[in-house]
Amino acid sequence: MAETKSVIGTQNKKGQTFTDPWKMLHDAPRTPSFFTGSEVIKEAVRRASCDVMIAYPITPQSEAAALIGELFAEGYIGDYFRGESEFAVMSQCAGAAFGGARVFTTTAGPGTMRAMENFPMWAGARLPIQMIVTCRGINSPLSIQPDTLEIAYLLNTGMLVWHAETAQDFFDWILKGYMVSEEPDVHLPLALCCDGFFVTHTKDVVNLTPTDMCLPPYDPYRSPVPCMDMECPPVRMMRDPFVMKSNYISYATHASWQQEIWAAVERSRKHSIHWLNGLIDTENTDQEILIVASGTAVSQGREAIRLLEDEGVRCGLVKVKTLRPWPEEEIREATKNAKHIFVPEFNVTGWLAKEIRATIPNPHRVHAGPHVCGGMTMPPEIIVQEIKTALGMKSFSLAGRGS
Amino acid sequence: MSKERIKISEDLYDIMPSDYQDLVKSATYGKEDRGWKDIGNSKELIEQHSLCAGCPESMAFRYILASLPNPEDTVMVGSTGCTSLVFPMVAVHNIHSLFGNQNAIASGLKRALSVRFPDRVKDVVVLAGDGATVDIGLDMTLQAWFRQEKFTTICFDNELYANTGGQESGLMQKGFVAKMAPVGKLFDKVRLPEIARESGCHYVVNCTVSKPSLVEKVIRNAVHVAREIGPTYLQLYTPCILEIGKNSMEGLQEMRDSEKPTERFAYKEYISEPAKQLLAEMTAKEKERKAAAKQLAGQA
């Protein structure tokens, strides 16, 4: 076995020091900066030691993809180019990951859907690509407004799916995401989602790690499947082709492989807990009324709780950080005291409420809503109204209030 | 990878399949003048396959793999189709991803390998059927050429969707009656070699695989030009004898009939000026090498 030498403490060609990721994210000094979410994506990628980034314009992720182009021009990324469509971009990302590169890309809404065939392929090929999904409407009539319906389609691709609430989440989770998805027992792609515009286009104070520190580079030989670079002896991959028809063993092979992908998603759980300090965050879960949400609906829920407190109604909060792996046990535990569970969502179907209903005992406790969709904002008042209506309390509609 | 890496740990030697032992002992890795004449004498990078008896594609596969100038550092990218039945038996790293995205996969792969191994040659060769190359994957085929990606694209043109049972494809001849072309195909065979030239390919050949020496030459040229200059494209007629109603012994004749001067697979070659210069330099060097070897042999 060849002797391997740690790169921690050495410098890359830009003079950044490869730093122990835990120390970088927990011990290094942080500088408060006033940035948009897109700018924060750029700052995270600057520190992520990415080899290849492939871009395509689609609102609202275009700015992030363009800003990462600036990083390439500055020499922070090995290669960067614009692909011809989202399907092609995700295929190009796959090729780069097959070749042993740390890969980053971004997408949004209809682009996510156009590229969809690639995502189960990424997972099946164990490619730890990180993709930022800046969610927006996907259905006709055309919309470019925020809407999280596309996350529902990603949930069963075999990818890890995380849902960031804020730009600060984004900064930290992009870096932590590589740490989880590149673990040999995981080695799966990560869809790191946020609610487009609300996060990408608004400015917030974000605490950044020093620019002269970066993640250690990706080691493709920790992959559980061969890296396609001809650096390990080639083998004939199978005695018989996978796809030979009427061959029971090919079905069995495929079936066991699918189960292995989902087992890898489960194995990511312990790493995600370690890096994200748990799969959920909770506040006051001893209350009988709970709001359970992901993404920016968490922020709106937090504000609704403050408004309800003014009226003497106490309410707890559960922030779901990872959708895959799904925090089943954590949600069961957090909701065990709740008589009413409200799940506000920025989509019409209520996929998060359905997941929660399928998870907990006495699922009739779940009130799926309020839902806003098509890009509408979710004023905290409508969450308050939903809760008060369900509790039989008198409330005025927003229209009736004249606001 | 160097050829020295292709060896078996002594502790594991006994349990390795004989197929693999043979590959390590007597493949043509590292042999400078490897070519189709090694077939049958050296362990081949492909032996068994599950293609139909007499399938010209299997001949093409053998000639191509025997002619790669640098198999120990070549990665191939395939696509869905009959080729994906063969790739599992190919002893170089190969990727099957989705249908039609082979040139996009190769773009990312080549760039990643260039980033990771800036001082070494890693060849990428795409090999897909006409459905993947010219129909569903045409956008990605062309855009890879526009971007001047440095890899070779080989299209196994059998003029239909063979693996799914003989449906109409863009490279099918006009008038050919096929499944999904019940009254005959209504438009001409897509002129991809001409499009390839106009799209920025530096070496383009349209031919059959009836002559192994010719296949060997064009493969070497295409890989070397792609490595040094830019994209290259080979369109090789590998008729699906099953779907055009031929017997297993008639594939070779079908190709010979189709490569006559007035036929659609008459040999066509386009070489850009930089590629001409490169190939001339390579030919001169090869002559020098052979002359030196001859002189050395004479002295001995």
Folded structure, characterized:
The complex is a heterodimer of chains A (403) and B (300). Chain A is of the alpha/beta class. Chain A is built from 14 helices and 16 strands. In chain A, strands 4-3-5-6-8-7-14 form a 7-stranded mixed sheet, with helices on both faces. A 5-stranded mixed sheet of chain A has the order 11-13-12-15-16, with helices on both faces. Chain B has a 7-stranded mixed sheet with strand order 2-1-3-4-6-5-7, sandwiched between helices. In chain B, strand 1, helix 3 and strand 2 form a beta-alpha-beta unit. In chain B, helix 2 (56-67) crosses helix 8 (212-228). The longest helix of chain B has 27 residues, at 273-299. In chain B, 51% of the residues are buried. The chains are: A alpha/beta (403), B alpha/beta (300). The interface between A and B is large, with 46 and 47 residues.
The side-by-side strand order for the widest beta sheet of chain B comes to 2-1-3-4-6-5-7
Tell me about the largest β-sheet of chain A. 7 strands, mixed
CA radius of gyration of chain A is 22 Å
**Structural class estimated from helices and strands of chain B:** alpha/beta
Q: How would you classify the helix and strand content of chain A by structural class? A: alpha/beta
How is the largest sheet of chain A built, in terms of strand order? 4-3-5-6-8-7-14
Topology of this protein?
The complex is a heterodimer of chains A (about 400) and B (about 300).
Chain A lengths: L16 E2 L2 H6 L4 E6 H10 L5 E4 L6 H13 L4 E4 L3 H13 L4 E5 L1 H6 L3 H7 L5 E6 L13 H6 L5 E4 L3 H15 L8 E6 L7 E6 L4 E2 L33 H29 L3 E4 L5 E5 L3 H14 L5 E5 L1 E3 L3 H7 L5 E3 L8 H7 L8 E2 L12 H11 L7 H4 L2
Parallel strand pairs in A: 1-10, 3-4, 3-5, 5-6, 6-8, 7-8, 12-13, 12-15, 15-16
Antiparallel strand pairs in A: 2-9, 7-14, 11-13
Helix pairs in contact in A: 2-3, 2-8, 8-9, 10-13
Chain B lengths: L17 H9 L29 H12 L6 E5 L4 H4 L7 E3 L5 H15 L6 E7 H6 L2 H9 L5 E6 L34 H7 L4 E6 L3 H17 L3 E6 L13 H8 L9 E4 L1 H27 L1
Parallel strand pairs in B: 1-2, 1-3, 3-4, 4-6, 5-6
Antiparallel strand pairs in B: 5-7
Helix pairs in contact in B: 2-8
